[in-house]
Specification:
By secondary structure, this protein is of the alpha/beta class. The chain is 39% helix and 11% strand. It folds into 2 domains: 93 residues, TIM Barrel (Alpha-Beta Barrel), CATH 3.20.20.390; 48 residues, no CATH class. Pfam families: Pantoate_transf.
Amino acid sequence: MLPQVEKLVQSGIPVMAHIGFTPQMEHQLGGYRVQGRGEDAQRLIDTAKAFETAGAFAVLIEMVPGEVGRAITEAISIPTVGIGAGNQCDAQVLVWQDMAGLRSGRLPRFVKQYADLRSVLHTAARDFALEVGAGTFPGPEHTF
């Protein structure tokens, strides 16, 4: 992706690079797997440096061991944003649907669920359907 990043930056389009696990490459990476273990750590560090040289304004580091996230952050001067890359990145991000508890099923280890909005929304939708079915919604207070 380096030539594309260089071209975009030269065209005035800001680019945040994405390294480690990249969801669009899940099948090529062998599934939902941690990246950057062992000798592969240096490859990620080198890739981050190359993206910095290409003009990226920041690097998103996804699903790598914490020590690799730290090493990348120390190796480059542009900001790093971690998602499952330890607490030594310059910033953190979570997919809001995961963080808010909207997704069902197995969540990645790095996701912390701060709420259970899925249950709240399920209950609200069920109650709405029941009231519409019973004819109690909309009531006089909801009617012009």
